[in-house]
UniProtKB/TrEMBL annotation, chains A, B:
<keyword id="KW-0560">Oxidoreductase</keyword>
<dbReference type="GO" id="GO:0004497">
    <property type="term" value="F:monooxygenase activity"/>
</dbReference>
<dbReference type="InterPro" id="IPR007138">
    <property type="entry name" value="ABM_dom"/>
</dbReference>
<dbReference type="InterPro" id="IPR011008">
    <property type="entry name" value="Dimeric_a/b-barrel"/>
</dbReference>
<keyword id="KW-0503">Monooxygenase</keyword>
<dbReference type="Pfam" id="PF03992">
    <property type="entry name" value="ABM"/>
</dbReference>
<protein>
    <submittedName>
        <fullName>Quinol monooxygenase YgiN</fullName>
    </submittedName>
</protein>
<dbReference type="InterPro" id="IPR050744">
    <property type="entry name" value="AI-2_Isomerase_LsrG"/>
</dbReference>
<feature type="domain" description="ABM">
    <location>
        <begin position="2"/>
        <end position="91"/>
    </location>
</feature>
């Protein structure tokens, strides 16, 4: 199985709200993908800190996700609101 | 390094708010611990889904955390509001 943690910051709470809005459709469609076990966007106690936490059956499922139409359409729009670096961690486990 | 994902659900948004309230002190004190690199409580787009996402320098730092006074005092109170099982994942990485 694959657990993805993609943690990032945005400029302010208004941008955080906008990312959460844009992410709704991405969450909905990602959860329908074959091999998805969990997928959500989380907001930290620091409201400008956001985290995609995802669980995939295997690497193939995760690769199909990042090539999917909804990901390649929506994520670039979210990317524009990210400030600083993304802390992306991908863990494989049994 | 050690990344912890502790994901759980609570009964309703009022309980989610209560957990976030209780977690404030736990977050503050955990971030001061030696070997802590990040520590926050995140709330999902499903507001009753909460996630502690933590990063520790090594296993010793993480073990010291779960034995700490603030953890052993606060976490049992949070535990009472958790419904169903906790999805706890602990990843070691370089």
């Amino acid at each position: 199985m694959v657990r993805v943690n993609s943690m990032f910051n945005v400029k302010d709470e208004a941008d955080a709200q906008q990312v959460k809005q844009m992410a709704r459709q991405l969450i909905e469609q990602s959860r329908l993908e074959e091999g998805n076990l969990s997928y959500d966007l989380f907001q930290g106690s620091t409201p400008t800190c956001l985290l995609f936490c995802e669980t995939w059956l295997d690497n193939d499922a995760f690769k199909a996700h990042v090539a999917s139409q909804h990901y390649t359409t929506i994520m670039p729009k979210i990317q524009k609101l990210i400030v600083g670096n993304k802390d992306l961690k991908i863990f494989e486990y049994e």
